[in-house]
Amino acid sequence: MAADPELEAIRQRRMQELMAQRGGGNNQQNPEQQQAQEDAKREADERRQMMLSQILSTQARERLSRIALVKPEKARGVEDVVLRAAQMGQIAEKVSEEKLISLLEQINSQTTKQTKVTIQRRRSVLDDDD
C-alpha cells in the first residue's frame, strides 16, 4: 500500500508536466505576457513612426501611407530602407516625395518578378490536318 501514494504523486507530477507542455499550465501568465508583448510592439511602432515623421516630408509620408493601404509589406520594406539609410547617415535632409518615388522605382525594378507563360496546344484525336 505504500506504493499507491507514491504512484499517485508520480501521476500528478506527470499530469502537471503534460499540462505545462500543452499550455494548460501557463494560462495564468499568458495574458500578462501577451499584454507585455503588445505594449512593447505598440511602443516600437510609435518610435518607428516618430522617426519616420522626422525623416520623411509630409507628402512622402502621405504617399507611403497610401501604399501601406494597398501593399503593407512593400510599405514596411520601404520604411526599413529609409530608416536604415538614416541610421547610417546617408540621409542629410528630409526625404521628399520625389526621392521616395525614385526609391520606390529602384525597389520595384529589383523585386519585379519575371513571369513566363508557355502555351502548349494539344491536338485532339478528332482534329484532322489532312
UniProtKB/TrEMBL annotation:
Gene Ontology molecular function terms on file: DNA binding
UniProt signal peptide: none
Region annotation (Disordered) ranges: 1-46
Domain of life: Eukaryota
Short name of one Pfam family: dsDNA_bind
Feature: compositional bias, Low complexity: 27-37
GO CC term, one of those recorded: cytosol
Family matches, as PANTHER family: PROGRAMMED CELL DEATH PROTEIN 5
Similarity comment: Belongs to the PDCD5 family.
Entry protein name: Programmed cell death protein 5
Organism: Coptis chinensis
Upper classification of the organism: Eukaryota, Viridiplantae, Streptophyta, Embryophyta, Tracheophyta
